[in-house]
Amino acid sequence: MKTIEKSGLCNPNSIAHVTLRSIEEIVGTNGLNAILKHAGLDELINNFPPKNWDKAFDFSYYTALNAAIHDIYGLRGGRVLAIRTGRATFTEMRNTYGAMVKATDIAIKLVPLKVKMTLWFRAMTTAFNAASDQQTSIEETENEFIYTVGNCPSCWGIENAEKPICSMQVGLIKQSLYCLSQGKEFNVYEATCHAMGDKACTFVIQKEPIGE
For a surface tag, which of 68, 82, 126, 198 has the fewest beta carbons within 10 Å of its beta carbon? Predict the structure, then answer.
């Protein structure tokens, strides 16, 4: 696989640790090790980043993981695995690092779900902007939320992708809303992707749950 140069932009070690653990839970230790070897990240085998909030896990590592998943499992299989990883990552973050995702537990049960979603996305963008070198923002229309990620860690350094490839982000968003809504699913898709030449990665979230 083509080596991706370091970006100098980083996520916290703790989130990287949770992401790797989530992949391992889905594909097993041997599966994770195969992904790490393919990504050129052999140094992470049995050597996950520590559970601290130091911004030290370069975006290029995330991109290499994402690219390796798609290389090994194919475009469709890789997308499914990446979404599952994103969902598992959020669940583990929620269980282990409650302070970062406490918005899902805010005592706002009496307000409408759409208001909860607005509050959650505001908290989510604030948290990621503070904890990492991502540049996130949220816009709201009548029927949708548009979540924008500049300096996206999932596709840093990738060019000429034919389709959006940041499915881990999709999975994380979907699982956060699943928890927030107490079990409802939402349509989430990546509309633009930096790897395709777009300025930033944008994710469109329908306000109405699927089936309602």
Answer: 126
